[in-house]
Amino acid sequence: MNKIAIAIDGPAGAGKSTIAKEIANINNLLYIDTGAMYRAATLKLLNSNISFDDKEKIEKILKNTKIEFSNGNIILDDINVNEEIREPRINESVSKVAAMPFIREILVSLQRGIAKDNNVIMDGRDIGTRVLPDAKYKFFLTASIEERAERRYKELIEKGYQCSYEETVDEIAHRDKLDSERTVDPLRKAEDAIIIDTTGKSINEVIDIILNIIRN
Ligand code: C5P
Q1: CA of 1 to the centre of ligand 1 (A)
Q2: Where does the Cytidylate kinase domain lie (predicted)?
Q3: Complex ipTM tops 0.90
Q4: 5-208 adopts what CATH topology?
Q5: Is 124 one of the annotated binding-site residues?
Q6: pLDDT tens digit at each of 216 positions of the chain
Q7: What spacing in Å lies between the alpha carbon of 4 and ligand 1's midpoint?
């Protein structure tokens, strides 16, 4: 029997992961945060202290890297890195790492493997366009840059990081620019995806919109 797949794409801070997690709980789907996979790969490279220009070494390191999910946790080489991958130093570098074609090849193939064996809701930047182009439901979540930065800023402050709202706006805008302008699998709405602008909407409102569509 074909597995169910729901793809959720959109820029940083649009609420994708919060909403996807909730829908996964309600509908008994496996939630896959593909951003966490790119973040884990970035953490590994930063910890290995190599230049991002050294393609050969990067390939070698990543071929010997295990990135997995276990009970909603992201596991890098058998270690839970849920917290570490959200650090500002990862935000700064992840879009550079995610633009490397061979890294995308490795991660896209892992993501497709998971979707082949499970009913999934997967969020990211290229799920509807590249990872799961045949997904039954595709959503593209957006929100104003101000609101996305405000949400991200609150999260960072709650976690105890020192940063300003303005820095958060810059970080998000920079990441969106790199993600949408890269050559390989850029951030883009799939033609058949439904756009949801979450500006001014509560999490529950957005969840209801999605649930109404998938239940009909
Ligand atoms: O979703 P999140 O903001 O955690 O993603 C972190 C970064 O990972 C993005 O800014 C993007 O560079 C990269 N990413 C990607 N493709 C995906 C998911 C994330 O390029 N499917």
Answers
A1: 30
A2: 6-215
A3: yes
A4: Rossmann fold (3.40.50)
A5: no
A6: 579 999 999 999 999 999 999 999 999 999 999 999 999 999 999 999 999 999 999 999 998 999 999 988 999 999 999 999 999 899 999 999 999 999 999 999 999 999 999 999 999 999 999 999 999 999 999 999 999 999 999 988 998 888 899 999 999 999 999 999 999 999 999 999 999 999 999 999 999 999 999 987
A7: 22
